[in-house]
Amino acid sequence: MSKLKKGLLITAITLIAVFAIFIICISPITKYLIEKYDVKYLGREIKIGWLYLNPFTAYVHIGNLKVYEADSDSLFLTAEGLSADFQLHKLFSKTYEINTITLNKPVAYIIQNKKELNFSDLIRRFTPKTKRDSTKPRVPVHFNILDIEVIDGEFHYIELTIPINYYVKHVNISSPGKSWDNDSMNYKFSLESGSGAGKIQGDAALGFDSLNYRLAAKIEHFDLGLINQYLQDLTNYSSVSAFLDADIKAEGGIKDELDFNAKAFVAISDFHFGKNADNDFASFDKLVIDAKKISPRTFQYYIDSIMIAKPFFMYERYDKLNNIERMFGKGGSKIKQANAESDAGKFNLIIEVAKFVEKIAKNFLKSYYKINKVAIYNGDIHYNDFALREKFSISANPLFLKIDSADKNKKRFTANIKSDLKPYGKLAADISIDPNNYGNFNLKYSLLNVPVSLFNPYVVTYTSFPLDRGKLEFTGFMDVVDSAIKSENHLLVIDPRVAKRVKKKDTKWIPVPLIMWFARSSGNAIDFQIPIAGTLSDPKFKFWPIIGEVVKNIFVKPPSSFYLYIVKQIEQEIENSFSLKWLTRQSTLSNAQEKFLSRIADFLKDNPEASITIEPISYESKEVEQIILYEAKKLYYTNMNGVKEKNLSEDDSIAIDKMSIKDPLFVAYLDKRVGDSSLFTVQEKCIYILNESRVANLYALLLKNREQSFRASFKEFSSRVKFVSVKSSVPFNGFSNYRINYNGEIPEKLREAYLDMQDINEMAPRKKYKEKRRRLLR
User: Count of CB atoms within 10 A of residue 197's CB?
Assistant: First the structure.
C-alpha cells in the first residue's frame, strides 16, 4: 500500500507539474508562434508586449499589441490590450463563438490610394481563391461573435492622392454582436474630432445579407475644417471653416444611395469660405434645415423650414477672370478635372457629396414636396468691378427673402425679395410660381431711388462723361405661361445731367450730351417703356416705343429749349447755394467756385446776423483710391524717367494723372515690385508698394487743404463760418462736397430760385415727376 501511495503521489505531483509547466509555457509559446508565423499567414509583422492564454477557460489577453503595414515598418494598428473569451464546449456542435472581445485604446491607420486601401491585402488573402463546389453538401458550421467593445480608440484616415490626413479620437463602440442566425448587428458609438472641436454619438444597425441599415446620430458642434484638405484638389487656393450640429434618424439600403427615409435637423454655423482665413467670398452665421421626412425611395419630401441668417457673398471682376474663376479655374476647370479624376477612381469627399446632392435634386423635382417656410435674413450681396479705370461697387444689404408654403399639390406658391442697395436704392421683387411647371410664373419687380452717378466708373470709362445728377427707377412685370413671355418695363431717369468731360488715356469717347438731348423729354427725364416678348430661352426686346419717344423729343424739345435752359439755371442756382462739389484729389478752388463763395461772403457782409455751418461730406473710399493710384503711378513715372519726386514739373503731374492704370508697362512694374500672384487688382498692388501711413497723411492733408481754401474766402467773417466734423459717406452725386447750411436769413436770390422752382414744378411736363424729384432738391 505504501508503494501504491507513493506511486500515486509521484504521479499526481508529475501531473500537477506538467499542468503548471503547460500553463506557464503556453502563453509565451503562443506569443512566439504568432510572432514567428505572422508574415506567413497574415502578410504582416506582429509584435506583442505580453500574452496570457488560459486554455481551460478559453480566455486570451494580448498586451501592447502592434501590427505593421504589409512589407513596411509603419504601424497599421496598436492597442494597449486585446481580450477575447471563447466558448469551447460549443465547438462540439460545430459552433465557433466568441463570448466577448474587447479592444482597449486602439490606434489604427486607414490609408487610401485611389480605390486601394491599406487592408485590401487582408481582404484578398482571406477571400477564397475558388468557388465552393455547390454539388457537395455544405458542412453546417456556425459563427457567433458577441459583446464587442472598442474603448477610447483613435482612428486616422490618410488619403495619398489629394492628400488627406484626418483622425478621430475617444472612439467608443459597443455591440451585443452577431449570431449566425441573425442577419443584423446593432452598434452604439461615440467619438470626437481629433483636429478640432465636435462630438458624434448614436446607434446604428446593419444587415449583412440585405445590406439594409438604420442610423440615429447626434452631432455637436463638429468642426468641418476637414473640408479644406479636399478643397486643395478643387481650387487654386481657398479656406473654409464651419461647425455642424445635427440630429439625424435614417433607414435605408446601401445598394442604392437613394433608397432611404430620413428625418433630420441640421444646423451649420459660423461658415466662412474665401481666398484665405481673412478674406471671405461667402459666409453665413447659421443655416438651419428642419426636415420631417426625406424619402427619395417614395418620392416624398416634407420640410418644415429652411432658414439662413446673415448670408454674405462677394463677386469680383478683374482684368482677367473673376474671383470665382480665379479660385476654381477658368470655366470651373479645376472642378472638371477633379470630376474626371473621380470617375477614374480618385476619391474626393466633396465631389462625392456633390454627386449625391445632384441625384437628390433630380429626385426632388420628380417628387411630391412641401416646404412650410424658406427664409433669408439680413443678407449681404456684394459686386465689385476692378476691370474699369476705377472701382465700381454696389451691394444688396440687408436682403430678405421669404417663401411661404411651397406645396406641389397647390396651384401656386409665392416668394418675396426686398433689399436696400448700398450706397443708395431699393430693390423688391414678388414672384408667384406654379410648382408643377416652372415655366409658369408671374414676376413683379422694382428698382428705386438709384443715383445715376453710381455708374460713373462705367460711364466715364466708355464715354468720358460723368453724371453728377439724376435718379434712376426701373419697374415692371413679367407674366410667363409655358415659357412664353409677356412683359412690360418702365425705365425712368429723372433730371440726368452730364458733367464736364474727363480727358484720360483710359477713357473712350461717346457724345453723351448729344445723346441726352435726344433721350430726355422736355420734363428733363428719360422715360421709356420697354416691352419684352418671346420665350425664356429667346426673349425679344421691343425698341419701337423707345425710338418713338426719341422722335417725339426731336420735335417737341426745340420749342422748349429756352424753358429747359431757364430750368437748368434755377436748378444750378439752388444746388450751388447749398453745396460745393470737390473733384477727386482737388484741394484748391476753381474760378467759378471762388465767385460763388464771394457771393456768400457778400451775403454775410450785408446780413450781420446771418451765419453758415459747413458739413464736409467726404467720399473717402473714392478719394483714397485715387490717391493710391496716383501715388503708385508717380513712383513708376519717377523710376522710368529717372527724375526725383521733388523735381516733378506741372507737365509731369499732368502726364501722371492722365496715365491709364491699365497701362501694360505700369502693370508690369507693379507685378515686378509686388511678386505676389494672389493679388489680382491694380488697387491691391498699388497699396502693396505704398506706405499706408503716407496714404493716410496725404488724405488728411487733402481734407486740411480743402478747408483752408474754403476759409480763405471768409477771412473777415471767420467767426460766422463754422465747420463740423468730416463725415465719410458715399454722396448721392458721386463727389465729395461741402454742404452749406444757412443759419437765420438765406440769400434773396436763393429764395427767389426756390419760389421759381416751385412754380415750374407745378407746370407740365415737370408736374408728373414732382414727387419723384423731391429728393433731389434741398
Answer: 12
Higher pLDDT, 412 or 525: 412
pLDDT exceeding 90 applies to what percent of the chain?
A: 45
Instruction: Quote the cell numbers at residue 66.
Output: 502592434
| C-alpha to C-alpha distance for 234 and 328, rounded to whole angstroms | 6
Task: Return all residues near 409 (Cβ < 8 A) that are at least 6 apart.
Answer: 368, 370
Percent of the chain, pLDDT > 70? 88
Look at the alpha carbons of 360, 361, 367, 368 in this order and tell me if their dihedral is positive or negative. Answer: positive
- Identify the bridge partners of residue 143 per DSSP, sorted by sequence position: 96
Mean pLDDT of the region 201-219: 93
Do 104 and 81 contact (CB within 8 A), yes or no? yes
pLDDT at 136: 62
Phi/psi region, residue 299 (left: phi>0; alpha: psi -120 to 50; beta: rest), is left
Distance in Å from the first CA to the final CA of the chain: 135
* Burial status of residue 575 (CB atoms within 10 A of its CB: 0-12, 13-18, 19 or more): buried
Is 60 exceeded by the pLDDT of residue 180? yes
758 to 294, 521, 573: CA distances (angstroms):
64, 19, 14
Written as nine digits, the cell of 558 is: 426745340
The residue among 110, 96, 104, 235 whose CA lies nearest residue 164 is 110
Residue 366 Cα distances to 360, 435, 437, angstroms: 10, 11, 11
How far is it, in rounded angstroms, from Cα 357 to Cα 328? 19
Cell of 47: 509584435
CB 157 within 8 A of CB 164: yes
Largest CA distance in the chain: 153
- CA distances (Å), origin 172, targets 83, 155, 720: 16, 11, 80
Mean pLDDT of 636-651: 88
Helices (H), 53-155: 120-125
**Which one, of 555, 561, 583, 601, lies nearest residue 716 by Cα?**
601
- Report d(CA 601, CA 488) in Å as an integer: 52
Q: Which DSSP letter does residue 137 get?
A: P
Query: What are the E-state strand segments in 644-735?
Result: 721-723, 727-728
